[in-house]
Amino acid sequence: xxxxxxxxxxxxxxxxxxxxxxxxxxxxxxxxxxxxxxxxxxxxxxxxxxxxxxxxxxxxxxxxxxxxxxxxxxxxxxxxxxxxxxxxxxxxxxxxxxxxxxxxxxxxxxxxxxxxxxxxxxxxxxxxxxxxxxxxxxxxxxxxxxxxxxxxxxxxxxxxxxxxxxxxxxxxxxxxxxxxxxxxxxxxxxxxxxxxxxxxxxxxxxxxxxxxxxxxxxxxxxxxxxxxxxxxxxxxxxxxxxxxxxxxxxxxxxxxxxxxxxxxxxxxxxxxxxxxx
Length: 277
What we know:
The protein is mainly β. About 10% of the residues lie in helices and about 40% in strands. The chain contains one helix and 21 strands. The strands form five sheets. Strands 1, 2, 3, 4, 5, 6, 7, 8, 9, 10 and 13 form an eleven-stranded antiparallel β-sheet that branches. It has a three-stranded antiparallel β-sheet with strand order 15-16-20, with no helix packed on it. It is elongated and about 60 Å long.
């Protein structure tokens, strides 16, 4: 073989080898949807994981005074919903295919709220919370999977790991289906305000700094203030300072700290009434 021919052949083989190497490189994982809690806006639930659970699942039960049984179960992201029944295990459950290899599971439903194969949007009700199948009480068994492999649950871009081994150690407030969007209602506060997990002073989450802040909506709750200056409304917002082990997103701050307006009023800086959550 002539030297020039042999050199050209070696160069061609090297080029092909490089192409094959590039082709064999694993493609990056598809970005996860911005998953939200699988229950309604403004609700607070506690969660836990125990050794018998599969695929990094979490179980949720409601802790804001409402009933767990019968509460709406919401799609945590848009996708195609499929209905299943496994009486000896998951009970009535829905799997939502989100695309890009991502899927979520919702087990033990009391009833389905969508047809099999329905296209659903984030925040849409897909069922009601129950205790069907192998379950000892009403709860939402929730999973996030990528290419069939269970992942640590992430809500609003924040991992809930490390998981607690029992309920009432960690809590999660939902902003799923709230609509409107954060930042719509701007308010001035006259002092640093402690934010809580619900519309009461039972579980401090952090602090909303004095100044101009955005809020999402309002709920009626515990009275805060003095005999002459008071407010029962609480404003859902994101805190500036978060206490260790707490969640600063979607916390509640008393409308007592608003710089303007009167008793039991909750308006933004333009005078618009802040909507209910």
